[in-house]
Specification:
Elements lengths: L1 H14 L2 E5 L5 H11 L2 E3 L7 H6 L3 E5 L6 H13 L4 E4 L7 H12 L5 E5 H10 L7 H7 L6 H15 L2 E5 L3 E4 L4 E4 L12 H15 L4 H26 L3 H14 L2 H7 L2 E3 L1
Parallel strand pairs: 1-2, 1-3, 3-4, 4-5, 5-6
Antiparallel strand pairs: 6-7, 7-8, 8-9
Helix pairs in contact: 1-9, 1-10, 1-12, 2-9, 2-11, 7-8, 9-10, 10-11
Length: about 280
Amino acid sequence: MTERVCRIWEQIRRSRPMVHSITNNVTMNDCANIILAAGGTAIMAQDEREAEEITAHSQALALNMGALRAQDAMLAAARAAKRDARPVVLDPVAAGASRLRREMCSRLLEEGLVSVIRGNASEIHALAAAEGAHAAGVEADALDCVTEETLATAAAWAADFSRRTRAVILLSGAIDLATDGTRTVALRGGSEWMCRITGAGCMLTSLTAVCCGAVPDQIFDAAVTAAGVMKYCGERAYARVCEEMEGTASFRTRLIDAVSLLTASDLASGLRIQAL
């Protein structure tokens, strides 16, 4: 797995895939910068009158539910991506907060427009509940908080949800889980400080899209690559701010810096991937 991840990282730098992101205004700048830091190119078009055309020129599409006013653009772009066999990464931001968000996610999934669902545990849980994949008891606890003790249960649940949606699931948290319903891996590392800045999840979604754009026939491996890069670079950024006695704003900048400076050999030495 490590070898495949490193090859994908090198492929991004060679191919410079363009990612069309329809994302929220709070994190739009960070999302664009993380795509550029990885070696891709970014465009953020939210007008439904051009969404299809912009997507046709892109290698991947990222959809963030924080951009709710752009629903028509999301649908047009996702349908264009499916027509042209371009990967689509869905970030169900705050899916449990409103019916509007859940219904939009469900519409995208029902039309089979999504390649990867990238969210945290609560978002994936809310989205799964909306899709009829209810969890109860230990299963619900495992999904809401993936720990070493609940890892096996959460992994089995996520794999089942992947099969239901026919999308790769990338569940991010203290331990990340990636699954295509058949293969499942856990990724460890990162930093607790990633929860103390706005946009770490959105940046991971964008990073997932640029990885998928580089290897559209290897969606699962691309999702694992994005998670592995974010975990490793989070560790590097935290170590650096500790050395310099800096705070969370510097951590955000150093996270992007770490992605921009990352080599395949660095990644190979720093990945912590476990096949489940």
